[in-house]
Write a structure and sequence with these properties.
about 210 residues, alpha/beta, Rossmann fold, 7 helices, 6 strands, about 35% helix
Length: about 210
């Protein structure tokens, strides 16, 4: 069996302002860097065979703390990037609703085939992630691997492990620098633990509940 430790990046100023980042490359805030260090201290002795990160700065900066403390080279993989939110990127949810009401309604309804202008549909996003995760699982069969990524990615991964529809309202947390463990054996995903945050003083979950 393969064990994946999947971690959302630390907090950014845009997280604090509830602004949609998507694939805009926003760095960690001072609090985000502190969360990354705390996460590194919590994970440094887990015996990871490898550590991967999205290529976006906020995920990479978070991963670097764990990679440094565990003395494991960091591998960058753009397949673990956040979903591209197209015309929503850079806006908060109130601005999305006011400027793009039809798109906002389809987005909030979690229509899996709806593609935001300039962005990705949920189905396309989930397909991209399936390829990235399958590659890592094949490469590290029987090992433990850490992956540092984004809130939208974790939304998809939880649903896969819990056999939950892409269209169902979200009823689980995705905090910044929360630690999540998944076990994969013979293609079956099992959720071991979710949103561990005992290592953190503060951690936001500013994503929409749907």
């Amino acid at each position: 069996m393969t064990r994946l430790c999947i971690v959302r990046h630390g907090e950014t100023d845009w997280n604090a302002g509830k602004r949609i980042q998507g694939q805009i490359d926003v760095p960690l805030s001072a609090l985000g860097h502190a969360q990354a260090r705390a996460t590194g201290n919590a994970l440094k002795d887990e015996g990871f065979a490898a550590i991967y990160s999205s290529d976006l700065t906020r995920a990479r900066q978070t991963a670097e703390a764990t990679a440094h403390l565990a003395r494991i080279p960091l591998q960058i993989d753009p397949g673990f990037r956040e979903r591209h939110y197209g015309i929503f990127q850079g806006l908060n949810y109130a601005e999305c609703q006011a400027r793009h009401p039809a798109a906002y309604a389809a987005h909030k309804a979690r229509d899996p085939r709806f593609t935001l202008e300039g962005g990705e549909s949920l189905l396309a996003f989930a397909g991209r992630l399936a390829q990235a995760f399958d590659t890592v699982v094949r490469r590290h069969a029987g090992e433990s691997v850490a992956i540092f990524t984004h809130g939208g990615v974790l939304d998809i991964i939880y649903r896969q492990a819990a056999s939950m529809s892409l269209t169902a309202p979200r009823d689980f947390g995705i905090p910044n620098c929360g630690i999540n463990w998944i076990e994969i054996e013979a293609g079956c995903w099992t959720l071991l633990s979710w949103a561990e945050r005992a290592h953190l003083d503060q951690s936001l979950d500013e994503l929409q509940s749907r």
